[in-house]
Amino acid sequence: MNSGLQINNKPREDVPDNLADLPLVTIAWRAMKQDYRQRLEERKHYRDEHERLQDVLVALAEEIYKVRLSSEIILPGAEQTGGSLLLKELTAIAGRMEEALTSAGIEIIAPAGATFTTELMEMFDNVAQLPNPVLTVPRIAQILSPAIICRDAVLRMGKAVIEVPTS
Question: Which domain, by its residues, includes 39?
């Protein structure tokens, strides 16, 4: 008989005993499945890492906004008491931090006094309304928290009080 047609039951070399009897397709399938699981876990890890980074940047942007807002409120009174130099330095630091965020593509949007347009409606939650008989179009009366934008994507919605026309 031809030796090429004979069936021999010798185990394959360099294959563990528990896998020796499995077809190669099954082994390959298991390896691909394990690789898929590993890549899926890596993607989940990177997505979680990205979300944590976004949360940190949003918190940083909000704190910068608070420092700027506080300095604008305090600066006129600080000039009379002699504390204006420290406050100006603090404002400059906040400005440099804001520039760093802007260079990373993150913007702090806080348009107090602006007309409440459709574009702003997508960025700000209308927390409260103040009736104003003088107005003809709604406008932002007060910013409670700024909107944080990253490359045209809203990272966090802002909150605002809106003045609305009464008639």
Answer: 18-104
